[in-house]
Amino acid sequence: MSIKAVQAFEAAARLGSFALAAEDLAVTPSAISHQVKVLEDQLGVRLFHRVHRSVLLTDAGRLYAAEVTEAFARIDAATQIVAQTVGSAVLTVHSTPSFATQWLMPRLARFQELHPGIDIRLQASVAAADLAQGVVDVDIRYNPGPPPAGTVMVPFPEDIIVPMCSPGLANGLKPIRRPGDLGQHTLIHSEINILRWNDWARHHRRVQLDLERGPRFDRSFMAISAAVDGLGVCLDSLLLAERELLAGKLVIPFATQGLRAQGHGFATLKSTVDLPKIRTFREWLFGELEKGRDWAGRFLEARSPLPSA
Q: Which H or E run includes 86?
């Protein structure tokens, strides 16, 4: 079996055109056509329907293309594994903006110290990254849903969602000591969060809240920052607000177990999931998340009444 013929077939199947396959492999279209014909003769089966200037995969061609594509992906992964045994490896991570800003960036120095051979490239946007393009190695997604074909998704531990505010607001002219006290305060809304103030209100039906008013943000990091500045009370994740809580910039004004939600997920391609750089980053990240979950549990259990102003 000719590897050149298989390469020509894979490119034509992937791009749907002999001409585009020729550009991809830097050969002529006639060379692609010839190699595909050689492969069809060797296999004894037709792989493409040739219609005017376009080509369409036959049923046998689609089956063969799926297997060949997976084989090339494994070869590419094996090549990267070998390449990473020497020198530094570049790991490109895409993340939602709030997780990147609030959680990941403050910990990157720690990761770099532990793994100096891996250089992190961090990108952030709300839209999910297209891992199939090969530019991004890891995508950290919020409320990700089922993983696309060819992708592995590992869910984070559940988020704990609690009301938070600045100490000055909690101890101000209208102190916050119990859930009912929130009715006298401005609520800060994170509009793309899985759990919002209306979900909290359903668990506290006796509390009268004005859910129509209050500033609204489409990023958690902005809502958390607004709460630090005393703009109101936000309802957000202990995972994302850990630094502000530890620094005393935010407090949880009354005892609560919080709401629980499955928030983020760690996505990679199936073909690259075991690359050393990805495996190393995944194991480090989930180890850090586990530490954070232990801290969150202790923090809620140890929460004591706020001192008087």
A: none
Angle at the Cα of 217 (from 212 to 223), degrees rounded to 5? Answer: 105
- The SS3 assignment for 295 reads helix
CB atoms < 10 A from the CB of 92, how many?
17
Q: How many angstroms separate the Cα of 7 from the Cα of each of 57, 166, 264, 271, 306?
A: 15, 61, 38, 18, 68
Q: What is the four-CA torsion angle of 176, 179, 183, 186, rounded to 10 degrees?
A: 60
Taking the C-alpha atoms of residue 86 and residue 89, their distance in angstroms, rounded to an integer, is 8
Residues 6+ apart with CB under 8 A from 194: 143, 159, 261, 262, 263
User: Which has the closest alpha carbon to 143: 124, 162, 156, 161?
Assistant: 156
Does residue 220 contact residue 236 with C-beta atoms inside 8 Å?
yes
Please list the ranges in the chain whose pLDDT falls under 50.
85-87, 304-309
Q: What is the Cα 169 distance to its own chain's centre?
A: 33
* pLDDT at site 81: 62
Pairing state between β 187-190 and 216-217: parallel
Strands (E), the chain: 48-51, 54-57, 89-95, 118-124, 138-142, 151-155, 159-164, 187-190, 216-217, 233-237, 259-261, 264-269
